[in-house]
Amino acid sequence: MLKQKALSLAVHVVLSGALLVGTTAAMAYESGDVIVRAGAATVEPNDDSSRLTLNGAGLTNSRAYVDSDTQLGLTLTYMLTNHLGLGLLAATPFKHDIKAKNLLVPGKIDAGSTKHLPPTLTLQYFPMDAESKFQPYAGVGINYTKFFEEDVAGELEGVVGASGKLKLDDSWGVVFELGMDYALTDRWVVNAAVWYLDIDTDAKFNFPGAEVKTKVEVDPLVYMVGIGYKF
Ligand code: NI
């Protein structure tokens, strides 16, 4: 009788254990899972630059500025193990205005604008157990930034000359990332994430008979808040 009771209890424990595993597996972050997220992503430059040069000569107390922009951000995590993920950050193109200070005229003027795409790949560490609803993560990786559709502002052309062209070099740099997912259901999560991207570029403004150059540190923080779905 005791044996039968013990057996019944064992079966009960194993069955409820299996049910528990079955339930938690649905919301777990496990090897092979893919989490796709979308939200508003803001690139907020911590910008700095070398002084501007005009035909090779440095301009006193001059520098360039880059403003911020918000676009649709898309991120993806592919879980390599229960605790390590491969993270990708993508977005619709960001557009930034560039200003120049003390370039032939005192004060700030509009110098131009550029679009860029900053595809970013990180290795992410998820410290929590697979079944936790709260999944914070920290990542480190690499960013490639491609600048395109660079334009020279009319205000700068008014100062230096007509028919200006702007070229910004592509940038490779290190990335640090912090983020968190919180499970709303077995599949849907809310997400918040922040990245630091080391983006440095050489900016060259070319005019007939004049060249303006500077090295720009964009080094932005990127913030994103959105929702995600676990496949
Ligand atoms: Ni930098």
Largest sheet: 8 strands, antiparallel, barrel
- The total of helices stands at 2
Domain tally: 1
Assign the CATH topology.
Porin
Q: Would you state the CATH class?
A: Mainly Beta
Ligand kinds? nickel (II) ion
Structural class: mainly beta
- Total beta-strand segments: 17
Summarize the structure.
The protein is mainly beta and 231 residues long.
Brief descriptors of the model:
single chain, 231 residues, six-stranded antiparallel beta sheet, binds nickel (II) ion, mainly beta, Porin, eight-stranded antiparallel barrel
Structure description:
By secondary structure, this protein is mainly beta. The protein has a single domain (2-230), classed as Beta Barrel (Porin), CATH 2.40.160.20. It is 14% helix and 61% strand. The protein contains two helices and 17 strands. The chain has helices at residues 2-27, 154-160; strands at residues 34-44, 48-49, 53-54, 57-58, 63-66, 69-79, 84-91, 94-103, 105-117, 120-125, 134-152, 165-168, 171-183, 188-197, 200-207, 210-217, 221-230. Strands 1-6-7-10-11-13-14-17 form an eight-stranded antiparallel β-barrel. Strands 2, 3, 4, 12, 15 and 16 form a six-stranded antiparallel sheet that branches. Strand 3 and strand 4 form a beta hairpin. The longest helix has 26 residues, at 2-27. Mean pLDDT is 90; it is low at 17-25.
